[in-house]
Amino acid sequence: MSLKSHFWLVAAQIVTVDDKSQEHRFSMNVLLNTKADAVARKDLAKAQEAALQRFAPTFEQLKGHTLKDVFLLSISNLGLQSQVQFHAGFSDAGEGAAANQVN
Q1: Mean pLDDT (whole number) for 35-39
Q2: Predicted confidence band at 96 (pLDDT cuts at 50, 70, 90)?
Q3: What is the signed CA dihedral for 18, 45, 26, 102, rounded to 10 degrees?
Q4: Structural domain range at position 35
Q5: Is 5 within 8 Å of 81 (Cβ atoms)?
Q6: Is residue 27 assigned to a domain?
């Protein structure tokens, strides 16, 4: 029997500023996984860090940009499930599945 945990879908937005002081916004989703049925402050920090890690390859290609902020726009509860249940039907389910998943 697989252990179950709570899955959350986090919509994040990263803001950069270019060398002409223009803001640029980049949106993405991050998957958060918690033991508790609530999202704690440490989980928010993990979600922000995961968004930054996911954004890193894009940021490296942006010349003259400075990171300004990371916003968590929404957090949706996807339910209490095992890893197998959540990733059912996807061929990468046994490989740590989503690269943007934070445990």
Answers
A1: 96
A2: very low
A3: 140
A4: 4-81
A5: yes
A6: yes
